[in-house]
Design goal:
S-adenosyl-L-methionine-dependent methyltransferases; nine-stranded mixed sheet
């Protein structure tokens, strides 16, 4: 938190100095503190600031008091998104400064639409994020719609140090250019196959449909029980891909993977889903299964944006302001994952609620960590 305060103090404010009543640094940190303390919209942020102005003056200048909610939104929309993204990059480097870990880090990439940003006159922001297996968002790029993920993913990869990681994406990211970028940056990949790679998907599906080939694959099975249901997850992986005519088009391709999830309900009813993947990982079923399973962390991050921070309920139409809020939510999410609030473990949503009941106490503790 002290690092964040120091960094935000360097923001360059392009407004005319003589007309400035509220410092841009103050507004950035007011939004951040209020967001941690359970404020979700601009009015709530103004209310938080006015209720806790004396405490906030310990860290912010506030030369003309707490700005109105309209001013908070207007100025926050002027903050360069690159400035906030750069802090995420520094955060990434700080989190991953320990080079002693021999297990390859997972980095899941996927997109989410800010539904509250859309209207009949404009498409909502679609934001492609990179999330590690601990649930920390390490970076994102904004695009106008989901189909533009293909362009955004290489740009996002260029902003991150991914050397030695395993990159996972959904089928939208399964593109030869993206694979080439991943390999150029000395990372591995596990990428989902769906209809957008029709011939490749069909070839892999046909291979795994043959029992004689399936029996030769490396295999792993896990069984989990929760809420009256039993979920069996099975994984098959093979480096026997000499038959794959398209393999030369996919840089570093070494293995293909099949997963089969079978869910059995309370009454014995079952449902089965099969998924297929291409990968640059060598044969090693444990790591392959970890990568496939680990992709859910980016979905968990998106779930927290909606449930913990109520992102889809925020109807900020100005696109820059909405995108900046998304970055701040992810920074707040990172902080909440690192801290404990109260005497027992709380969900992230309840941590925000607890901070909001006594911001002076909890924010002071967070700042001094």
């Amino acid at each position: 938190m002290k690092a964040l305060l120091d960094y935000v103090s360097t923001v360059v404010d392009m407004r005319q100095e003589k007309k400035v009543l509220h410092k841009m640094m103050d507004i950035i940190m007011l939004v951040f503190f209020a967001m941690l303390a359970n404020a979700d919209d601009w009015v709530e942020m103004e209310v938080f600031g006015k209720e806790h102005e004396k405490f906030l003056r310990n860290y912010l200048e506030l030369p003309n008091g707490i700005p109105s909610h309209d001013t908070i939104q207007r100025v926050f929309a002027m903050v360069p998104s690159e400035f906030l993204e750069n802090f995420q990059k520094q955060w990434n480097e700080m989190l991953n400064s320990d080079e002693g870990n021999k297990i390859k880090r997972l980095l899941a990439i996927d997109g989410k639409t800010q539904r509250g940003n859309g209207s009949k006159n404009q498409k909502a922001n679609h934001i492609v994020s990179a999330v590690d297996e601990k649930g920390f968002c390490l970076g994102q790029k904004r695009v106008e719609e989901k189909t533009n993920e293909i362009k955004a993913i290489p740009e996002l990869l260029d902003c991150l140090n991914i050397k030695g990681t395993i990159i996972t994406t959904d089928a939208m990211g399964t593109q030869t250019a993206i694979v080439k970028k991943i390999r150029q940056k000395r990372a591995d990949y596990v990428l989902a196959l769906k209809a957008n790679q029709g011939n490749l998907l069909e070839d892999v599906r046909l291979y795994f449909s043959e029992d004689e080939f399936l029996k030769k694959c490396a295999y792993k099975k896990t069984v989990e029980k929760a809420r009256g249901k039993t979920e069996k997850r099975e994984y098959w992986q093979t480096d026997d891909i000499s038959w794959l005519s398209q393999k030369k088009g996919w840089a570093g391709l070494k293995t293909v993977i099949l997963t089969r999830n079978t869910v059995t309900g309370k009454e014995g009813e079952t449902s089965t889903e099969e998924r297929y993947f291409i990968s640059s990982l060598p044969a090693g079923i444990e790591e392959a299964a970890r990568a496939v399973r680990g992709h859910w962390m980016v979905e968990s991050c998106h779930w927290h944006l909606d449930v913990t921070f109520r992102e889809d309920g925020n109807h900020t139409i100005e696109k820059q302001a909405a995108y900046n809020l998304n970055i701040m939510r992810k920074l707040s999410l990172n902080i909440l994952k690192l801290i404990e609030v109260g005497s027992k473990s709380l969900s992230l949503k309840k941590k925000r609620y607890a901070i909001g009941t006594n911001p002076e106490k909890h924010l002071e503790q967070i700042i001094n960590l």
